[in-house]
Request: fold
Amino acid sequence: MKIKPYKKDFDYTYTLGVFETIELLKNRPDLVLRVYIKSNSYKNSGIKIIDDICRTKHIELIESDHTIQKLSKKDNCFALAIIKKYQMTLQEGNHVVLVNPGDMGNMGTIMRTMLGFNYFNLAIIRPGVDIFDPRVLRASMGAIFHLNIEYFDCFDDYLKRYAHHHIFPLMLKGAKNIHQIENDHHFHSLVFGNESSGLPDEYLNYGQSVFIPHSHHIDSLNLSMALGITLAHFSKDDFKEQTVL
Reply:
């Protein structure tokens, strides 16, 4: 296999970093085609974990500074894995729905935040960011390998399959304050718009539209911040008894 910088039409992608490579090897070793490490990486404690898993799973491990430098622009990238892209489908449960997301870093942060609040299903309404872009994988810190992610051509296609879900579009024009919403533990879908434009007004007609109140000093919240607040609110009953980690 000739190693090239990532393009969307490839049938493979890369993890760029020790932590996300470990998460991949622990959760989806079946996807791994090959692992590369830097020659000066052995002081990193994660490299031994990578080496042990590769030996156990019979995954090829190669020392190659040239390959890592070719694929990663960061000096602190000590390991990478080449992985096959794979198909996922949503499972029943609570969902996050992103309509036309476009920011790589936000997408990875969203995946990590979802995992932190036990949300494992992500629907993306096209057009949307490429979830297999190495920048997304890196920003997710390996969270992507725990999630079910599926693309839909339009929101109505999503609704056809999950019409039984309670739908909560998060909007500046939302009809109800999020603090007035109680989670009735029915399966729900939390819907968020594009980072710059939010959700179109038509989403006011879906389910119960919601807004997050904030001070007049800002005009809106960053998408990943709004999502974190929303997931914390809807999952608060699951974490009430949790003590300090």
